[in-house]
Amino acid sequence: MTHLPKFSVALLHPRYWLLWPGIGLLWLVVQLPYPLIYRLGTALGRLAMRLMTRRAKIAYRNLELCFPEKSEQERHQLIKQNFESVGMGLMETGMAWFWPARRIARWTDSIGVEHIRAVQAQKRGILLIGIHFLTLEMGARMFGMNEPGIGVYRPNDNPVIDWLQTWGRLRSNKDMIDRKDLKGMVRALKKGDVIWYAPDHDYGPASSVFVTFFAVEQAATTSGTWMLAKMSKACIVPFVPRRKPDGKGYELIILPPECDPPLDDPQTTALWMNHIVEKCILMAPEQYMWMHRRFKSRPPGVPSRYE
Predict the structure, then answer these.
(1) What are the residues facing 221 on neighbouring strands?
(2) How does the record say this protein sits in the membrane (predicted)?
């Protein structure tokens, strides 16, 4: 487990001096009124789309693979909205880490909190499915304000960023746990804790099975969901942190729990989990992290989908 980190003077080493003004600028920007932050964030995203051409191509390719029924015009429109969401995602990271709880609560509608209470009444742990929306950091903060949990994360190689993200994420949550610490996750779930877990990215073939995701057959999907659910007997609870249009705030949508998931084998569980992830993505497709190479891992001898 990673508890609230102590600030070290080593973080002020000259090699990190360029980082601190950027962090300070982000802090200043998120002190602005939220409607203005929204306009700045979406404008930044439109600029990013012009500069991040490789990522834009990856996002477009993912949309081609997942939604072959969409027209080229529909995909380009979705890419534009997606990059506006990318810009807002940076702003929301600052908001999640620097805003006081009362300000976040003012802009948030929480829906479905009773599902968490129902699972807790059964004295069971909660495997909280928090997929990679661009509102991810805000989602973790909003959820933690309702029910503090434990976040699964990959420690950042830069100690300043690692300190800052840990500090920010623990403002409304209990602990952080390394994504490699499977035993620690199981222990926490058996104690009745909430573990935030993201099963939607491609984490490599070694820890994955190949099952269908949207229109893509043989998509590498983590087998971790199967292992965690089988070993801990936790309930699985998906949630969606959805940004409202036109700078009107956020919805934290907690979906009904799945306390008896199919656990016959890793493939069955992964396919079932992908269907849940698909349902969540379709609630706000423009806010999902499409620029990630979701389908980079392929079965042996099968060509890349990104060439």
Answers:
(1) 209
(2) Single-pass membrane protein
